[in-house]
Amino acid sequence: MIVQLENVSLVRDGKSILQEVNWTIESGENWVLFGLNGSGKTAILNLLNAYYFPTKGHVSVLGMEFGKTYLGEKLRRQIGFVSSSLQGKLHSGDNAFEVVLSGAFATIGLYDVPTDEMRQKAIRLLEELGCIEYANQNYETLSQGEKQRVLIARALMADPKLLILDEPTNGLDFIAREKLLESISAIIKQPGAPAIIYVTHHVEEILPEFKKTLLLKEGQVIAAGETCEMLTEERLSDYFGLPVKVTWQNSRPLLSRL
Ligand SMILES: Nc1ncnc2c1ncn2[C@@H]1O[C@H](COP(=O)(O)OP(=O)(O)OP(=O)(O)O)[C@@H](O)[C@H]1O
Ligand SMILES: [Mg+2]
Fold this sequence. Notes:
By secondary structure, the chain is α/β, with parallel strands linked by helices.
């Protein structure tokens, strides 16, 4: 079991953010966490990373149950996390190669001496994610799309069991988005790949490799299960509160208003 949320509710600053959330991710599954702005997606991720503690219910991630085991760093070392909020936190002045290497230590900035093996792995990941040509470029000067690739390579340095991608295509143009999705698809196909949670509010980004989807709305799970059953016109029209049409092309869904 990778993730188990049982009747999880979260209240922060007197505000109810999540209500009675149930979600199970088994090993080998890749999930889309779908929800509109403010629906509570990032709040769930903060629970999985042990940055938030549930107000009610049980959370267990990678076999560690909250409240029973000390989590924090021990847990976070096994979770690769990529979000745009991380972009601003990185060490200024580091080049792309150093940013990827720092993933081996789960630190922001390089404080330990990396081994040759780590260096080779960082180079391999930079190659796999198509960012080797800007390995020596200052991270801060990279474009948004280039930064996201470097951050995914960084997250993979520690061989995580769970990889969380929180809206990784934010700010990316069509081509950059499609290329990033191709890279994500390639990661999934590798032997020993981590379970992936792909967080988005765009139906168009859902790759066929993500066989499971959870629909979140206003802090509640509307439905969770097989992606093809979640992305029906009926369910999504109901979800958005407006009639929508879903067209499938090359196993990818496209959404339009009716
Ligand atoms: N620490 C907090 N204190 C008070 N309210 C919070 C806190 N964290 C999140 N919220 C609120 O909880 C709701 C869910 O926020 P969250 O960031 O999880 O949304 P999201 O689904 O990730 O949205 P987006 O797609 O815009 O990133 C929002 O209304 C937000 O204002
Ligand atoms: Mg968010």
